[in-house]
Amino acid sequence: MVTTNGRTGGGGADDRASGRENGQWYPPEWPDRIRRLAHGELEPVPPRRASTVLLLRTGADGALAVHMLRRRTSMAFAGGAYAYPGGAVDPRDERDVPWAGPSPGEWAARLGVEPEVAQAVVCAAVRETFEEAGVLLAGPDPATVVADTTGAEWEADRAALAGHELSFGDFLERRGLLLRSDLLGGWARWITPEFEPRRYDTWFFVAALPDGQRTAGVSTEADRAVWIRPAEAVAGYDRGELLMMPPTVSTLRALLPYEDVPAVLASAGERDLTPVLARARLVGEEIVLSWPGHEEFTKHLSSGPPHTPATATPGADA
């Protein structure tokens, strides 16, 4: 069952990925960009660091549910696709913030990065969850969490953060709060393919919806917000009704063995955070697009019109 803004419903006609075998997000410009990259005509854009959070709760039926947003079709990246709250690291996320839980150094060891990068990634995860879902993983001390984030003043802070008018550190200090890094668990890491014009090196985290808090309405980047069972979301994708990117589908499938939130959080420490990066090869007149270790997303595509640059190399990796 899908719960959206207090109502119940399934995917409507506007959710259907017409003509697809499933709901895998696939921009029409990819084949041309893959060809250009393979032939050395396209320089990969450096990926920006980003964070996203699989926000979890136990539904009224006792089943595990995850919070998802449908990105507005006007968005330049993955428009119309279902995703989790998240976004790019803000340079100000690297500044010192009031902190409780595992230190940036401890997170650095878990994420495989430098402490300052780990701090920024964790800070971005908490900040983006508040900006996009209205859920705040912070509290007045290391043992408590804010119980209610509704009301005009909280909404004004969300808007100021989203508009880059307020840094997350300043927001926490003004409210006398500590970022609770212990409420997050590392879940996965995916890097946008090299042929994409907008690239992100994204860490996926899991977190429980804090007691007393509830998700807010949609943000400026989304037109629908839902709580949905992972199995239902995956089934919608498999039927071609819910559009999603491979990282979203993969992280959803990874939730399927778990019956409740504590079980997910307990397993997070054992998750492999080796980054997943797509590969594309030109094989004769065919493009083979794959994500190592995730064979379900492999695509065999026509290479399209003849492409004859001076240094064409069939079979080259992109």
From TrEMBL:
Membrane-spanning residues: none
Residue segments, region Disordered: 1-30, 297-318
PROSITE patterns given in the database record: NUDIX
Record InterPro entries: NUDIX_hydrolase-like_dom_sf (IPR015797), NUDIX_hydrolase_dom (IPR000086), NUDT19 (IPR039121)
Needed cofactors: Mn(2+); Mg(2+)
Keyword presence, Metal-binding: yes
GO molecular-function term, one example from the UniProt record: hydrolase activity, acting on acid anhydrides, in phosphorus-containing anhydrides
Nudix hydrolase domain ranges (all copies): 46-250
Gene3D superfamilies the record matches: Nucleoside Triphosphate Pyrophosphohydrolase
Keyword Protease appears in the UniProt entry: no
Keyword terms of this UniProt record: Hydrolase, Magnesium, Manganese, Metal-binding
Ranges annotated as biased composition (Low complexity): 309-318
Name recorded for this polypeptide: Nudix hydrolase domain-containing protein
